[in-house]
Amino acid sequence: MLFNMCGIAGYVGPKNAVDVVFDQLKRLEYRGYDSAGIAFRDNGNIAVVKRAGKLSELGKALHDMPSDTHLAIAHSRWATHGAPTDLNAHPHYDAYEQVAMIHNGIIENYLDLRDELVAKGHLFQSQTDTEVAAHVIGEEYAPGVPLEEAVRRAVKRLRGAFALVVISKREDGKIVAVRNASPIVIGLGKGENLLASDIPALLPYTRDVVVLEEGHLAVLTPEGVRVLDEDGRDLPLRTERIDWDVAMAERGGYEHFMLKEIHEQPAVIRQSLAGRIDENGQVRLERVFSEHVWTEIDRVNLIACGTAYHAALMGKFLFERLLRLPTDVYYSSEFRYGDPVLSPRSLAIFVSQSGETADTLAALRLCKARRIRTLGIVNVVGSSIARECDRTIFTQAGPEISVASTKAYTAQVMVLTLLALYIAQVNEAAGIRVDDWIGELMQLPEKAKRVLKTEPQIVEVCRKIQDAPLCFFLGRGADAYTALEGALKFKEICYVPTQESPAGEMKHGPLALVVPGVVAIFGATDPATADKVVSNMKEVQARGGTVVAITTDEDTVVHKAADHVLQVPHSKHEFLTALLSVIPLQLIAYHVARIRGCEIDQPRNLAKSVTVE
Ligand code: F6R
């Protein structure tokens, strides 16, 4: 599965390399970015040109550049560390400007490495983890050492999930790339070779590719490509031919961006944990408030819209159940006009994928005017909410293109979970086994993969419920919150009316809507309330409704009552099982929409980022 934060391109061959890599970047424009840059050979040196903003800004800066350069690498950044500025844009040099490097992913131990290098006298221009990695390569690049060997040695000092691409002043006509959990695809040409993070950037040049495998390193020259293992031994080239069209390639071979993003969730969960759990099994959050602040906070207000609001509800569940910290959740639009009562010791948390939602931004400004502490949980680095909050934690979900949000939700809940554990840790909250939670969190990527493997069963269920005139989404506890998210996905892309509520509320009104043909989808992942949920299922079935249950692989009760059963792996903490159950809910919405022939990535009447009030 390709999961890229940033766009990467590289070319070595007889053509004007700057033109080729710039063209490659243009072909990655669809994925979004906030800054871009190029490094190329110029008179025996490596020149670097980079600009924040649109590619046209970089294009203007490249206007008078030499046209006879035959080696270049390029990068479009989707920031995870450091704001999107000219300085933070890639490529980055090492300390001696011998090598230039671009990077995708996260170097988890960059702060420790940076301290080590600063102690040795290194100076850094940017706040990025990338520049630190470039300096590590520079250190390993002693005279006589080939670039690929320096990169191989440097990688052993780096921790995280990343791909690196490097060129050197000392070795003309050579690009070195290494893959460590972030994808690199090499394009094989005649007398030229290329590489990219995503296949669309290769298609105009070649359809013969080598997908670099985990831990492997590639050396590209005009004459050929070598692939080496972790120990520097040559490996045979495994070539594939890509017959996707451009649109298909942009979606990583998936039919829609929404499906691609649903499938990215195991990687997104892993990425949201990256660099945030230290060797001692403790949560490490950078750039949050100092430790004493967390003891002062008496109340949390979570403020968001839409899917982010549903993620915030999951945060409330955890803050109250785990931390016993009173927490309110507000729709941004209601908060800002609602004259909220705010304790001076409270913390306001703003959850937003885009970081630009107008109502959330207005709510943030209201809190700032009232001098309340503000914290953002945001996906887009450099966005307005990220900039204006006192502190921001980034969700690291990568660009989300489908209007219906999926992976951003999962990443938001992951960050809220890490935050709750962090607060428990700094406050030394009694009775909370942070190490135990971390152990469970580390298993989630694998469990999410197992949920995705049940997609064929989910499609079967979707065929049975595709004609429902009305669909209920129900649950208790955390399942009641994921039910809200399942319903939102369903109405957004299936255009079928939904009725969502806690399962126990059914008999106080909504049950009147149940007639034959109506479908009720129950989240039933918590064994503590399984019996009660079963009673609610019976109420629906007695009136002719069809029941779909999402339960766990350890369930002994629910599956006996439901008409159709879907399972997610059990987790010791029911909250995490509920979180995983959002994946079948997303897939139900996706497949019913597909069967019904609905527009999926751009549903009618909706926009990805709502910047109007
Ligand atoms: C639903 C969806 C929206 C957004 C909402 C908030 O699939 O995407 O409900 O969640 O517009 O957007 P952000 O998170 O960008 O503030």
Order the strands across the largest sheet as they lie in space. Answer: 3-2-4-1-10-9-11-15
| Chain-averaged pLDDT | 93
Looking at how many chains there are and whether they match, the oligomeric state comes to single chain
Total tally of structural domains: 3
Strand content: 15-25%
Low-confidence stretches: none
Class per helix and strand makeup: alpha/beta
Which CATH-level-2 architecture of the largest domain?
A: 4-Layer Sandwich
Number of helices: 21
| Text of the CATH class of the largest domain | Alpha Beta
- Would you give the CATH topology of the largest domain? Glutamine Phosphoribosylpyrophosphate, subunit 1, domain 1
**Could you tell me how far the N terminus lies from the C terminus, measured between alpha carbons in angstroms?**
37 Å
As a whole number of angstroms, the C-alpha radius of gyration is 25 Å
Give a structural overview:
The chain is α/β, with parallel strands linked by helices and 613 residues long. The protein folds into three domains: 7-250, Aminohydrolase, N-terminal nucleophile (Ntn) domain (Glutamine Phosphoribosylpyrophosphate, subunit 1, domain 1, 4-Layer Sandwich); 260-450, 3-Layer(aba) Sandwich (Rossmann fold), CATH 3.40.50.10490; 454-596, Glucose-6-phosphate isomerase like protein, domain 1 (Rossmann fold), CATH 3.40.50.10490. The chain is built from 21 helices and 25 strands. Strand 24 (546-552), helix 19 and strand 25 form a beta-alpha-beta unit. Helix 8 packs antiparallel against helix 15. The radius of gyration is 25 Å and the shape is globular. The two termini are 37 Å apart. The model has no long low-confidence stretch (mean pLDDT 93). The site of fructose -6-phosphate has 15 residues, from helix 10 and helix 17.
